[in-house]
What does this fold into?
Amino acid sequence: MENSKENNQKSLNVAVLIDGNNFYKGLEKTSLRESFDISLFDYEKFVNSIVVGDNILAKRYYKGVIKKEEGNIKSQRMVSAQQRLFSRLEKDNWEIRRGKMSKNVEFGKCIGFCFVDKLFEEGNNLKEVSQEIVDKYRLVYRPIIIASKELENQVELRNFLGISKEDDPQLKELKGLYFILNRWREKGVDVNMAIDMVGLAYENKISGTSLDKIVLISSDSDLKPAIKRVQELGVSVEYIGFEHMYSLALLGIANHRLLLTEKELKKFLSPRLV
It folds into this structure.
């Protein structure tokens, strides 16, 4: 892995901050998921390869906590996998910064599957189609299934969703069902990262902890103001993103930058068990 570390003999004091959800999404968008279990990515080995010869003062991993959803076996498996990840990280002395997960309530509250067409609710292929949607979109939590094609009052349906006829991209269809994805979203992770970045820089300036650099592994452009403040306080920022998914804003403002390729990421993954 080509490192952007300064070409001198000085050992730097660094803090490493990883946006767990952002990083996982980057891995998901590679072909690596076909042959490797990306949930077992070796963050410790990865970070040590980046900060060779430097002193790590802090290692923080930010992630919204997944909640179990009753009746959803997939969500229960995801919760268990996340707990195992947290245990591995904590064993390697990572600080876990836990965020909250919040349902997207833009289209109303949903618990499990919500059906408008009562006749279709009694259909024999209901469970099959429901699971197909979950699998197709790799969902941890179930989406809302709205109605069948046979539902006559589509105007009422659109009013319920709050969308016009021109906004159909949000309304999906599969095997005679109209549905809209109801994903859980992280809340507060980007804010926590920004606060920690500025806090580390201020602590360095006030108490003299000699922090030289923050290694930021996130492509959230909302962190740009925090990066500027950190730099004003005398701490440099190294932005690490993916070659296939990166933030132009962070590339432009960071002191150092590194874009990861699939070949490089492969070193920190284990083959998927057959």
